Amino acid sequence: MSAFAYVDGRYGPINDAAILVEDRGFQFADSIYEVVAFLNGRFLDFDKHLWRLRRGLAALFIEGVMEDAVLRAIAARLLRQSRYRDGILYVQISRGAARRNHGFPKASRPTVVLTVRSFDFRQRQQQLQAGVAAITLPDQRWARSDLKTTGLLAAVLAKEEATRGGAFEAMLVNGDGIVTEGASSNFHLVDGEGRLVTHPPSTAILAGVARDGLLQLARQAGIEVQERPFGIGEARAAAELLLTSTTAPLLPVVSLDGRPVGGGVPGPLAARLGRLVWQDVVRQTGWAA
Residue 2: pLDDT above 80? Predict the structure, then answer.
C-alpha cells in the first residue's frame, strides 16, 4: 500500500496530493515539521511533538493553525485509512501560498500537510545489537538549529556523505571542535566514569523528543547525566557513543570515521538503556517485536 496524505482538507493517496507552486514552504522552507512514530497503531510521545510544533510555529510567527485536537483527529483518520500498524506520521505546516516575496504576506492561510507511511522498527532492534557506523563532518547549518524547519539542505548533504561513506549517520562538529548533533539525530557519549553526556539544549541543537526521553529514563535508573558540550576528541575516546531519534529510538555507534569506538561493539550502557527505551515504547503502545 502507498502512503496516505492530508492536504488542507483533502485526504487521499500521497501520489495524488499537491500544494500550490507559490507555497512558502516550497519557495522558502518557511515551514515547521514534526515526525511522530506510531507502533501497534498508537502514536508515541504525540503530546511532546505537538508542543515542539507549537513552539516552532510561534518562533516563525505562523498563525491561524487549527487546534491540537483537530490535528490529532486528522492523524487518527489517516492512520485508519492506511491500516498500518507501525510507521511514521509526518506533519508539516507552512505560512501558506502567496506571491513570491521574502517579506511575510499581509494575508495568508497556513498550508497543513500530514502523511503516514509504514516503517519497520524491528530493524532498529537488530541494529541495537550490532551497532552502527558514523563519520564526522563540519556543522554547516544555520544558527537556529533548535527550530525544526524544513530548511534541511545542510543536513541532507551530510546524510548523503555519510551514506556514501558506508555510515549510518554524520556527527556534526562546529568550528570550535564541539560536537553538536547528528544530521538527523542527537549524539550522546558514555565517559570513563559511566556517565551519560550530551550537548545541552541551545540554539545549536534540536533537542529531540527521543533525546529527552532517554535522559529521563537514565536519571530514573540512577545513571548520572551531564548536559554539557563535548569535543570531537572526547567523542573519539569515549567508552561508548549513542544516538537517538524518532525513527531510531537508541542506537550504539561502534565505529567513528572508520575507527572503533570503545571495544568496537555495543557497550553495557547501550544495552541497558536500549532495554529501558524499548520498554517505554511497549508501555506507551503495547507493541510487540
Answer: no
CA–CA gap between residue 74 and residue 139 (Å, rounded): 36
Of 260, 217, 214, 224, nearest to 241 by C-alpha is: 260
Pair 27, 269: CB distance under 8 Å: no
Nearest alpha carbon to residue 144 among 156, 154, 158? 154
**Has 148 been annotated as catalytic?**
yes
Cell triple for 66: 487549527
What is the bridge-based pairing of β-strands 169-173 and 179-182? Answer: antiparallel
Average pLDDT over residues 6-13: 95
- Other residues' Cβ atoms within 10 Å of the Cβ of residue 233: 10
Q: Model pTM?
A: 0.95
Q: Confidence class of residue 1 from pLDDT cuts 50, 70 and 90?
A: low
In a 13 Å sphere around the CA of 103, the CA atoms on its Cβ side amount to 3
Q: Mind listing the pLDDT tens digit for each residue in 117-152?
A: 999 999 999 999 999 999 999 999 999 999 999 999
